[in-house]
Specification:
This protein is mainly α. Helices cover 65% and strands 3% of the residues. A two-stranded antiparallel sheet has the order 1-2. The two termini are 54 Å apart.
Length: 126
């Protein structure tokens, strides 16, 4: 085809025609984005769940690691025993604690992710 001026027609397209369209927000997500009272309640529930989990984990670590000196008080014979030439208290405090801490950290991360997944489900249902 030609135009009235005699040149060829050119089709002009936008590169944005292939752009991915924005998804629609669920009403729960919209409540959070717009900072409404319902959104505030949803976010507060997540924060409380995460705080509760963190306090529980910190208390457990404090009891387990802080309780080791009590083990040595109630069982004074452990202080004089050796394992491979190293005193038992050193083995417990310097070596045995770390696998427990790593296992506890792994469990904490899984529980925190579970809290977030539950929150995401709650927001999607709202």
């Amino acid at each position: 085809m030609t135009t009235p001026t005699g040149g060829r027609r050119v089709i002009v397209t936008s590169s944005r025609t292939r752009a991915q369209r924005r998804g629609t927000y669920s009403s729960g997500g919209r409540e959070i984005d717009e900072q409404t009272v319902v959104g505030e309640v949803l976010v507060t529930s997540l924060l409380r769940a995460q705080l509760r989990l963190a306090i529980y984990a910190a208390a457990l670590v404090g009891i387990l690691i802080g309780g080791l000196p009590l083990v040595f008080v109630f069982f004074p014979g452990l202080s004089t025993r050796y394992l491979l030439g190293v005193p038992i208290p050193w083995v417990l405090l310097g070596v045995a604690v770390y696998p427990g801490v790593c296992l506890g950290a792994w469990a904490y991360v899984r529980a925190a992710e579970r809290n977030e997944e539950d929150f995401a489900e709650l927001v999607d249902r709202s």
